[in-house]
Structures are given as structure tokens and as C-alpha cells.
Amino acid sequence: MMLCREILLILSLMPFMHGLDGSGCDEDCADKPVFSPSTLTVKYGDRVSARCTACQNACQKDQTNLDVSIGHARKDGNLILWKVASMTAWNPSATCYYIKDDGSMCCNHLPVTVYNLPGRVVMYAERDYGLDSEGSQYSLKCMVYDVAPVEHLTVTFYRGSTVLGQLRSNNTSKTPVTEAFTLYTDASTEYNSTMYWCDAKMDLGPEEPQRSLVAKSTYHEVMVSSATVIQSCILLILSLALFHFQSD
Asked: Looking at the predicted structure, is the pLDDT value of residue 1 above 60?
């Protein structure tokens, strides 16, 4: 008898389970399912868990469920526990819901962010035009490798301890990517022997783990010649060429 009841329940839930992300799912219902924590941030490969209280008083425990794309869900009355031994999905989903008396579904989706810290960060400079002289322009490039999600990354450029600027990505990919961030700066002999570098920080919001989420690059030195030195070198080259021509 119990088996028949369970089968009937599953059959009755199938239309709703098929359309969890569709219009049949009401996220504005009065007695909405509540997740704890309300958002989830987890490093790729780590274990993680969350709880859902399907309802406070407006549902029966046999009308509740937790639909997940990875891991396992275990029910204890109106409380449902979700556990993942190793988070190996970059865009996981978890939807807690129950069936109301009128046959509609009341649900809540748990926002999950799966992140991967940069594999490495590399800084280098490229001269865009002209000579290595005062007034020429450099592009400082900060290469960030294997980071996810890159839209949560802030890259900061430094000259010594001075912040030159910050950049973010518009890439919404959930999987790891390698991306170059470029900042333009004018060359000056004033900063010869000054080290340039960058760091990449993951901004994961108030739920971010209590660990270092900043990766730093190595240091890069840009040497700039003054216009006077360059002019002297040019005059020396011309003088040597003229002397060689006269000797012939």
C-alpha cells in the first residue's frame, strides 16, 4: 500500500519537476521554502552542504522535495539536507519546493557560485610605439590563468605601492578561463627602477570563505631612456658614420 502511495506521489509531481524553471514554479508564494545558507559559495572540488526548510506550516512532508543537479538530498520532515561530497559542476542547481493544495508549486532556487582561484598571474609590459624614451606609451598586461568565474575578478595594477588602476571582465563564463587585462601608462625616467606588478582578487560577496583570495604577479621593471641620452646616441652614431665615410 505504501509503495502504491509513493508511486502515485511521484507521478503527481512529474509535471512540476519537469518544469521547475518554468512558469509553474511560484517563487513569490507566502510560505516560501527557505535555504540555509541563503547563498552558497564553494571552491571547485570541495565538499559542501545546505539545508532547505520546505515550508513553515502550509505543506505536508510528502508534498516536498529538493531537486538538485549534483549530490544527494535527504528528507527529515519538512527539512531537506543537500550534500555534495565533491563539487565537480561549474553551474549546479538546487530547487526546493512543495505542492500546494490547489496543485500549484511553491519553490525557491539556491544561488550557487563555484569558483577556482587563478592558477598563476603574470605581468609584462609592451611598448606600443616609438622608442624606449620619455613620453612613449606602454601597455601593462596582467595575464590571469584558469580562473572562474572571471566576472567576479578584480585586477589591480601597481607601480611600486601606487595603484595605477583596476579592471574587471565582462565575461560571464562559469568555467575557468585565461584572460589578459591591459592598462596603458606613459613612460617616464622618474620611475626607472620602480617595479610594476598586478594582483587578481576574487570578489565573492559576504559569503566568501575565510581564506586568501588574492593572487599576485611577479615584479616587472620598465627602463626608460631620457630624450637627451637618445639624442646623444644618435649624434654619436652619425659622427662615427661620417668619420668612416671620410676615411674611405
From this structure: no
Angle at 149 between CA 144 and CA 35, to 5 degrees: 150
240 pLDDT higher than 50? no
Task: Give the global pTM.
Answer: 0.75
d(CA 148, CA 119) in angstroms, rounded, equals 10
- d(C-alpha 6, C-alpha 165), whole Å: 60
157-166: long-range pairs with CB below 8 Å, 24+: 157/183, 157/196, 157/197, 157/198, 158/196, 158/197, 158/198, 158/199, 159/185, 159/191, 159/194, 159/195, 159/196, 160/191, 160/194, 160/195, 164/140
pLDDT tens profile 35-46: 999 999 999 999
Mean pLDDT for 162-182 is 96
Domains in the chain, CATH or no CATH each: 25-115 (2.60.40.10), 120-232 (2.60.40.10)
Residue 181 CB partners (closer than 8 Å, separation 6+):
141, 142, 143, 144, 155, 167, 169, 198
